[in-house]
Amino acid sequence: MEPELPSDSEDSRILQAARELCHxxxxxNLSPEKVSWQDQYSTQGRWSKDKRGNPIGRYxxxxxxxxxxxxxxxxxxxxxxxxxxxxKPLLVSSLIFYGQLRSQVTRRSALVFAPMxxxxxxxxxxxxxxxxxxxxxxxxxxxxxxxxxxxxxVYSSLLLSRKFMLLADRxxxxxxxxxxxxxxxxxxxxxxxxxxxxxKMSAWAWTEYGDAPSIEKRIRNLQDFS
Length: 226
What we know:
Blueprint: H1 9-24, E1 34-37, E2 40-41, E3 58-59, E4 66-68, E5 71-74, H2 84-112, H3 114-128, H4 136-176, H5 178-198, H6 215-225
Helix pairs in contact: 1-2, 2-4, 3-4, 4-5, 4-6, 5-6
């Protein structure tokens, strides 16, 4: 039995929409129990919270809702800015990504990091056994390669994540229509620009971590698709 909806009208409407979409997409495992408005999130429990108990970690992307541990995490800057119907295309895209596509991102990211693991396997003996083969220049070179492949792997993983999020947008647009989805994204873009024009300090409220494509790329992606 699902928990009762919160009394707050906006939260209840968004939560109800998310649950209905989870049912339609057969993604009941992602059906949220609550809505949480927060700037950042972390998977490290109490070790990644400030003195007030607020999460410290990755920024939640304002225009890409996060389904995390049966919680629908939304950015506070978006609170009261969209109608419940306008949230639906965003929610569907996120559900498609987290419920259907993220496993592919995980598998492909593992392949991206495979070269680094091979280099680490070669480096460990070099650190333990110093001889004519594993001398200082060789160990230094292997260490540099491990660092380079690790950085490259992280960046490639981010690109993969963005690529599949854009694919999720296209799949979502097939259900809601690309024009309706575009209208919502363009409204969010306009809100961000308006906030920054009114108050330069408000730009921090739209800060993104970088694992999701920018609002501009999401708009261009749907424009190219329509």
